[in-house]
Amino acid sequence: MPEKGARKIPEWKKEEVKDIIKLTNDFPIFGLVDMENLPALQLQRMRIKLKDTLTLKMTKKRLIRLALQQLKDKPGIDEVIESMRGMPALIFTKENPFKLCKALASNKSKASAKPGQIAPRDIIIPAGPTQFTPGPIISELAQAGIKTKVEEGKLSVVSDVVLVKEGGKITPKQADLLSRFGIEPMEVGLNIVLVYENGIIYPRSVLEIDERVYIGNLMLASAESIALSMEIGYITPDNVMVMIRKAYRETKALASSANIPEEKEEEFKEAFRTEKGPTAAEVLKEVEEEQKKRRKQGIIKTS
Questions:
Q1: Is the pLDDT of residue 276 over 60?
Q2: What is the DSSP pairing of strand 154-157 with strand 148-151?
Q3: Helix/strand/coil (H, E, C) string of 128-145?
Q4: Residue 17: what pLDDT?
Q5: Which of 54, 128, 234, 264 has a Cα at 20 to 30 A from 10?
Q6: Are residues 23 and 101 in the same domain?
Q7: What residue numbers bound the domain in which 53 lies?
Q8: Do 200 and 58 fall within a single domain?
Q9: Nearest Cα to 23, choosing from 67, 76, 65, 62?
């Protein structure tokens, strides 16, 4: 029998905790989201639109915490518990964490900041021209740590300023400034905090990848690696044609500077060898043969 005076836990609360534990076992991936300031109508629309992608579990914050505390066998679960904020909810999915984050982000809309709200990320006043004319607003901006200068009769912000740090509470003055700058820092939707997959925790900062920047970085890395390999004379299937063309141009320039007659150029280029290597024509032939072999083996795909 229960101890006299002991508080009886309602059955529905026990079922909620059991349901969360079951969902974490049924799905390989779960995420922690913040639903604060999410209108009920938009929530219903999102649930319908994403029903094939995820399962959303909403309940009391304390019950979510109790359920997660019973998952001690999952490494890193304490970090998930410590990351709970605002109005937390859990999402369960079999979708790739990055695709999941992208799907949630595509269903968000921008909104103005209100006093008392928590900044979802660093809120920045960007450098550049504004629509403000010089006046009392200069001191208001200065009090907020925003340095300005006058350009063509209008104020211009000198450099980017973090007005509110991520997780900070927005004050009435900050909300007013953001409104006057036309900045809508809040996002109406499911704000993802983190995603948990097999002991790996992906915070939002990792999940929110700008694909254009990522692809640009890959292209830059590729170009720089090819440039480096050419600089040190390291031949690869990716740079050999460029190196042969470079050698051809340098050979032609050498022939021209040495006053070799034009009719002798081809003979010179074909006969010219380094002490350690074959002619350019021989290298090209070897490369073409190697590429043919690779195509037959399926290593190089023909377009």
A1: no
A2: antiparallel
A3: EECCCCCCCHHHHHHHCC
A4: 93
A5: 54
A6: yes
A7: 11-108+189-209
A8: yes
A9: 67
- The answer to the question of residue 38 being in a domain is yes
Q: Which two tokens stand for residue 30?
A: 């779960």
Please tell me the total count of domains within the chain.
3
The band of 300, judged by pLDDT with boundaries at 50, 70 and 90, is very low
Structure-block tokens of residue 228: 């480096």
Instruction: Name the residue type at position 277.
Output: G
The DSSP output letter for 299 is S
b/e for 118-153, b at 16 or more Cβ within 10 A? bbbeebebeeeebebeeeebbeebeeeebebeeeee
Q: Give the domain CATH number at 155.
A: 3.90.105.20
Q: Could you tell me which of 192, 169, 166, 190 has the C-alpha nearest to residue 39?
A: 190
Q: Kindly state whether residue 113 falls inside one of the protein's structural domains.
A: no
Residue 112 carries which side chain, given as an amino acid letter?
S
Per the domain annotation, does 1 fall within a domain?
A: no
Strand partners, 192: 33
- Average the pLDDT over 283-302 and give the result: 64
Q: Do 272 and 249 lie in a common domain?
A: yes
Question: What's the mean pLDDT when you consider all of the chain?
Answer: 82
Write the pLDDT tens digit of every residue in 47-92: 888 888 899 999 999 999 999 999 988 999 999 999 998 889 999 9
Does 134 fall in a domain? Answer: yes
* pLDDT at residue number 44: 84
Q: Is 56 helix (H, G, I), strand (E, B) or coil?
A: strand
- Looking up tokens 């912000």, which residue turns up? 157
> Same domain for 205 and 154?
no
Calculate mean pLDDT across residues 12-29. 93
Residue 85 · residue 108 · CB < 8 Å: no
Tell me the three-class secondary structure of 174-240, residue by residue: HHHHHHHHCCCCEEECCEEEEEEECCEEEEHHHHCCCHHHHHHHHHHHHHHHHHHHHHCCCCCCCCH
Q: Are residues 71 and 199 in the same domain?
A: yes
Q: Could you tell me if 44 and 175 lie in one domain?
A: no
